[in-house]
Design brief:
It contains no helices and 5 strands. By secondary structure, it is mostly beta strands. The chain has one domain. Strands 1, 2, 3, 4 and 5 form a 5-stranded antiparallel beta sheet that branches. Strand 3 and strand 4 form a beta hairpin. It is globular, with a radius of gyration of 13 Å. The two termini are 21 Å apart. The relative contact order is 0.32.
Length: 68
């Protein structure tokens, strides 16, 4: 992700990113860990429609940085 985009990925206390596999129940916004394609889901994560990837990173909501 570009620096200063206002987007953060959830991470475990040890610094590792939490990934979710396609087919697992999920709700919220996720980005494909292979190509970065974004989806918003309310049930189960699909295969990535862009690259057929099966690993997703959750996006934690953050207030966007305002540039002046």
């Amino acid at each position: 992700m570009p620096e200063g985009s206002g987007q953060n990925v959830e991470a475990e206390p040890d610094g590792f990113v939490v990934f979710t596999r396609a087919g697992q129940p999920a709700a919220g916004e996720y980005h494909c860990s292979e190509c970065g394609y974004g989806v918003v889901v309310q049930s189960a994560l699909p295969r990535c429609p862009m690259c057929s990837g099966t690993s997703w990173e959750p996006r934690s909501w953050n207030v966007p940085t305002r540039y002046q």
